[in-house]
Write a structure and sequence with these properties.
The structure is a homotetramer of 379-residue chains. By secondary structure, chain A is of the alpha+beta class. Chain A contains eight helices and 25 strands. Helix content of chain A is 18%, strand content 32%. In chain A, strand 1 and strand 2 form a beta hairpin. Chains A, B, C, D: It comes from Flexivirga aerilata.
C-alpha cells in the first residue's frame, strides 16, 4: 500500500519501525524533496526485492508481422547516412516504448533491398547479425567482406568500422543483436562515421577472417598473441553449428551425456583467443530440442532474446505461453523460468527438431559476480 | 527537430536518406506501434551519440543540509525491520526523482542514534561505508563487529549478513555507497533478512578481519587460496590512508613522481586477494590536493561520487562550479571533465590540503572493455 | 680458466676482488666442502651468464635411421605392461645420454605392429602425438578411440588414461612429444596403471571429442564452463591445419600480411576453453615455408623440437647446418638462432613448400615471466 | 635390477613384455647408441615413478657452522666486481655438489663487512633476502635504499638493478633465496653489470617502496595499473609479520579457526598488484608453531627451504629428524612429509613459539597444473 505526502510517495507497510504520518514527517519529506534526497525506507521494497523483479515482460513477436513491416519500410524509408540502418527494433512492452527488447539487449530486423548499401560507421556497442532466412548481403568489416547466409552468426565487436551491401537483385532481412540498451544505460557510447561508400565491391564466398580463424583449435601465430578485445572470427557458419548440434544428439542416442538434458543440445559461440563468450557483453548460443522433447523450467539472472531458427513448438516464460515457428522472437526477462516443447504445428509436416538461436547478457553478470541460474531441481 | 506522427516521435533531420512524412509512412509507423517495434532511424541520435551523454547532471549537496535532515529523521523515523536503515539518498536531478546519485551509484547519509540498532540483512548489492565525522557505531559483518571512525573506509561485498549498532550515547552519521542503481538496472538483486537483534554486543577496537588481513602484503595461509568473491578486509583505517597520501607528497617534494600530477596524491583501495578493485562494481579512492594546487580537467566513461573529507576548495564539473568544504558531496557524470582547486574558504583558517574521497563504477566499464579516460593533454 | 683447490673448482678470473689462493683459503674451502656449502664467486660465471647458455646441442636425427631402428625394435621388443610403450627417444648429445631431446622436452618415435596394443595408463606428464606418415592406430583416451593419420596432432593432457591399439594388418610409427624431462626435473610425476586390455575395439573415423569440439569457435554448452585443466579436443586434423596454412599464403599473395614474415605461414594449436596453448607446458605449431623462401634468424628463451612434415630444405641452428627432408627431426636449444631455407633436395622433384611441425616449452617460460624472443632486426 | 648391454643400462624387471637379451637386441641397442637414441622401456621406472621421487635429500645446516664460515670468508674473500657477492650456498647432498639447496631453489648466507659494498647488477633470476639476525646493510634497488633488519623479508623480482652496502661499523649476514637452480635448468638467464659504486649513500629508515606501498590494502593510483611483472613492495617488516601471526593465535585462543591447524599460524607474502605469490617462481611464508604444538605430517609436490627464525624444536622430514634452533636451515624435498614440534631445547630458557621462515617453488607447479599437497588425513 502506497500513500503520498507532500508529493513524495511513501510505502505504508505493516512492518515495524515505519514512520507514522505527521506534520513533522511531512515537513521532513518536503526538506528531502527540496534538497534532492530520497529516504531508503520509502523505496526499499522496490529497490531491494527478495529476488529479481524485471520491468521487462515476456513477449513474443511473430516473424510474419515483423517481416511484413520491414518490407514496407524497404519501400518507404531510404537507407543512408544519418539514419544509418533500416533496422526496426523490438520494444518490450514493459520498457516504456523504448526500442529495448530487454533492459540490456537490442534486437532488430534489418532489411536491405537489392543494390542498397548501409554506410560505414563504428560504435563502441557490441553487435552481431544472425540470419534466419535468405542471403545475398555482405557485411564489410574494415576491408573484409563477410557473406551472410541462413544460419550464420556474425559477431561484430565494438569500435570496428563496418558497412553492409547487397549486390544482388533480391532483398534480404536478418536480425541485429546489440548491447545498445546496456551501453545507453552505462553512458559509455562512442560513435564515428566511416566511408559513405565502400568502393571495393568484391563479394567472396569466404571472408579473410574465416580463412585465418575458422579452423578448429588453430590460431595464426602472427596474430595469436594480439590483443583479445576484438573477436577475430567474423562468421560462424551454419554448417558447423548444425554439425555440432547433430553430433550431441547422436552421441546422446548412443548413451553419452553431452547434452544439457535429454533431447536438448546446445552450443555456445566462443571468442577464439580467450575461449570465453564471443563478445564482452553478449553470450550467444544455438539450441536444438528434439521433436517431442521438453526442457525443464530454468531461470537465470539477466535477460535473453530467442529466435526460432527452424521447427515449431510451444514456449512458456513465466505465466506466458506461445506457439512459435520459424523466425518468431521472444524475450525472457531476468529470473523468469523458461521451458520449451518441440512439437509440430498444425500446419507443419516437418518432422525435425526445434532449433533456437539465443543471446543473453550473461557475460555482464558473470563479470560482476551476479550470475545465478537454477532449474526446479536445484531449488 | 522532432515531430510526432501517429503517436510516434520522429527525428526530422537534415541528414540525407530520412523518410519524408507521408500517409504510407504514417501507416507504417502505426504498424510499428501496434507490433511493439521502434525504428532505429528515429532514435539513433540519442542512442548512439558521438560521445557519452549522461542523463545525470553535475550536482553538489552540502553536508550541513544533509546532516540537518538526517538528524531530524533521527527524531521522527524509527529504524528497524522493514525500513531496515535510516538512510537518505542523493537523488540526481537528472534521474527523475529516483534515489540514484548517478545511473549506477547510490550514496546516502545513514544516521543511527544512541543505543539504536539497524537489523541484520544481506543483499547481492555491493556496499561500503565511509566516515566523514564522528564515531561510535559498529558494523557487524557475520560475527565480526567493525568499529567505524572518521576517515575509515569499510567495504561490504554482496551477500554477507550485516547489521549496525550504536552502543554509545551520541548519534553518528556516515555515508553509505552501493551499486543499488546498477543492480536495480541489471535486475540481479537478492535480499534476505537476518537476525532481528545481534545478541553479542562486543565492540572491540579492532575487527577480526583487520587482525587477519590488515598487514601490508600479508595473507593468512589458511585463507590465501579461498574464493576471492568477497573482500576479506573489512576496514581500511584513516591512519594508513593518511600516511600513504602524506608519503606521496613528501616524495614529490623530494623530486620523485609518484603522484597523479603535481600536488595531487591519490590511493586506491584494493581487494587483497586479487590486487584489483575492492568491490566487483565499485572503485574507491582517496585523493589529496595540496593547498594551492589545481588538477587538470580529466574525464572518463562512467560516473563517480566525491565527498570532501577535509579542507576546502572549488570544484568544476562540466559547466558547473561550486565551493566545497568538509562533508560536501558532488557527482561527476560520465564523460564530464572534472577539475579541482585546493584553496582556503573565506571562513577557513585551515592551511591544510583538500582531501577528497571518491567512488566510481569504473570496474564495470573496465570489465566490459568500455573504460576510457583522458585529460586535455591526451586529446 | 679454472683451478681446483681442495677438491673445489675455483674460477680464476682477471676480475678484481677474487680471492688469492692461500692456505687459509684452502682451509676455508675445505670447511665449505665439509658443511655442504659452495661459494657463489666460484660458480657465478656458469650460473649467471650474460645470456642463456644451453647444455643441449643443436642436433638432427634422420627419419630413415630412426624408422629403421623402430622397425627392428618392432621385431625384437614386445610391447606390454611394464615397458608400456615401444618408444625410442631422442637423446641430445649435450645431455649426458639421457633420453631428453632438450632439457625440458621428450621426443620419441613410437612403433606399433599389426594387431598390437600398448596398455592403458595415465601420468601427470603432458603428451601429444604427431603423425608424419602412415595410419591405422587408434589412441583410446578414456572411452574415446581417436584415429591417428598423417598430419594429425593429438594432444593428451596429463592424468588421463590412454592406450593405443592397432587393429589393422600394417605397422604404424609416429612421434610422441612429452614434458618428461621437465616433469622429471620438477619432481612432480605421478603414474597409474589402467586396464591391461581395452575390450571395446571400436575404431570410428571420428572421435567423440572431435564430434563435440572440432567445430570452429563452438563449445558444447553442457561442457563450456567445465574445468579447463584438460584439453577437450583430442585431434587436430591435417585437413584443417593445411587449409589454415594455405589461406595465410594465399592472403599474402593478395597483399595481406598475416604471415610471420614473407613466405612463412604458421598456426598454433589452441586449448579451446582458454584460447591459449594446447598444453600447460607445451606449445605446438605447424609452419610452412614457401619454396624458395628463407626465414630470418630468430632465437628465444627455451627449447624446441622440429620435425619436417613435408618438403625439404636447409636448416641452420647456431653454428650447425643440415639438409632436411620428410620426417627428419632437429633440436633448437635455448637462445640459439634458427633459420630455415625451403628448397628442393637433389633427389626431390617435389615443387611444394617446406612444412615443419614444431613444439616448444614456451608456456613454462611465459608463465614464469622468463620468455624473450628476438630476430636480428630486434637487436 | 639393472643390467648393462652394449653400454646401455637396461631395467630387468619381472614385468611381462620386456625384451629378452639376445645378439639381435644387443645390435639394436648399439644402433640406438650410435644414433643418439634411448628406449623408453629401459628408463620408464625412473622417469615415470608412481609418485615423485626427489634426487634432493632432506638435510639440515646449522647456523653456527654456516655463520662461522661466512665470517672467515669475510676475512679472506674480498667482495667486488666479478665475484659480485660474498654468498655461500647450501649444496644439497643429493645434487652432486652443485650449490643447489633443492633442484629449483638457491639458499645462501651473504656476509658484508663494515664499510663494504656489493656492486650493482641485475639478473632475470628472482631473489629475496631474509634477515635472521643483525642489521645495518641497505639493499639499493634502482635508486631506493632499503634497510635490512632482523625479521624482514625483502623480495627482489628479476631484472632490477640492485647493490648492497654496509655503512656501519659491524658486519652483517643474511639469507639470500633465489631461483638460480631453476633458471639454470630453464636456460633463461640474463645478467647485466650495473654501477661499480653507488655514489648516493643515503640510508633512510624507510624505503620509498614502503612509503608508497606498505599500507594495508592501498595502492598509489599513479601506479595501480602498472605492469605487474615486478613486486613494487621491497620490504615486508617483521613488526607486521609478527603482529599477523600473533593475531591468528589470539583468535584461535578465542575459538576462531584461522590457523592452518591448532597451534600453527602462518602468513604468506603477497604481490600487492596481483594478490598472488610475491615472486613468479617463489612462494614465501612465515610460520609460527605454539610451544608444545606439533604439526601434522604434510607433503606437497615441489621443494622448500626453511629457516628457524626463533625458538627451537624438532623437525621430521621423511626419515630424517633433527633438533633445530635459531638460524638453522633445512630442506624438504618434493613429496617428503614434514612435521614440526615446537619445544624448548635443553639449553633454552625461552618459553616462546617456534617461528619458521619458509620459501618454496609452489608458484611454478601451480602454474603448470602440477601442484598437489596432502596431509595424512587426506589420504
Amino acid at each position: 500500500m502506497t500513500d503520498t505526502i507532500g508529493g513524495v510517495r511513501i510505502e505504508m507497510t505493516d512492518a515495524p519501525d515505519q514512520p507514522a504520518p505527521s506534520e513533522q514527517l511531512l515537513a521532513l519529506y518536503r526538506g528531502f524533496e527540496q534538497e534532492l534526497l530520497v529516504p531508503l525506507w520509502a523505496e526499499i521494497g522496490e529497490l531491494m526485492p527478495a529476488a529479481p523483479v524485471s520491468r521487462a515482460l515476456p513477449h513474443r513477436w511473430t516473424w510474419s508481422a515483423l517481416y511484413a513491416l520491414a518490407r514496407q519500410a524497404g519501400d518507404l524509408v531510404p537507407v543512408g547516412r544519418g539514419g544509418e540502418r533500416r533496422a526496426i527494433a523490438l520494444a518490450n512492452p514493459g520498457l516504456g516504448g523504448r526500442p529495448f527488447a530487454t533492459p540490456t539487449l537490442w534486437a532488430a530486423i534489418q532489411y536491405l533491398g537489392a543494390g542498397e548499401e548501409a554506410p560505414e560507421h563504428r560504435h563502441t556497442q557490441n553487435a552481431f547479425r544472425f540470419v534466419v532466412e535468405g542471403e545475398g548481403v555482405w557485411t564489410v568489416v574494415g576491408d573484409d567482406p563477410v557473406a551472410m547466409r541462413r544460419g550464420d552468426f556474425l559477431p561484430q565487436a565494438g569500435w570496428n568500422f563496418h558497412a553492409h551491401f547487397n549486390p544482388g537483385d533480391a532483398p534480404m532481412a536478418w536480425i541485429d543483436g546489440l548491447d545498445i540498451p546496456y551501453a545507453h544505460y552505462a553512458e559509455t557510447t562512442f560513435f564515428d562515421f566511416g566511408r559513405d561508400r565502400i568502393e571495393d565491391r568484391s563479394a567472396p564466398e569466404t571472408s579473410k577472417s574465416e580463412r585465418l580463424w575458422a579452423h578448429p583449435g588453430l590460431a595464426p601465430v602472427a596474430a595469436a598473441d594480439a590483443s583479445v578485445g576484438t573477436t577475430p572470427l567474423l562468421a560462424y557458419r551454419w554448417e558447423h553449428t548444425d554439425a555440432a548440434l547433430t553430433a550431441q544428439l547422436e552421441l546422446e542416442a548412443q548413451g553419452e551425456t553431452h547434452t544439457i538434458e535429454p533431447g536438448h543440445a546446445a552450443v555456445r559461440f566462443l571468442h577464439p583467443q580467450t575461449g570465453g563468450d564471443v563478445l564482452p557483453t553478449i553470450r550467444a548460443e544455438m539450441h536444438r530440442v528434439r521433436r517431442g522433447a521438453q526442457t525443464a523450467p530454468r531461470r537465470e539472472t539477466g535477460s535473453s532474446v530467442w529466435q526460432v531458427f527452424d521447427g515449431s513448438g510451444r514456449v512458456r516464460v513465466g505465466d506466458e505461453e506461445w506457439s512459435v515457428s520459424r523466425g518468431d522472437l521472444f524475450v525472457v526477462p531476468s529470473w523468469q523460468p523458461l521451458s520449451v516443447v518441440s512439437e509440430a504445428s498444425t500446419d507443419d509436416s516437418d518432422s525435425g527438431a526445434l532449433d533456437l538461436f539465443r543471446f543473453s547478457d550473461a557475460p555482464i553478470h558473470l563479470a560482476m559476480h551476479q550470475f545465478r541460474s537454477e532449474t526446479e531441481d536445484d531449488r
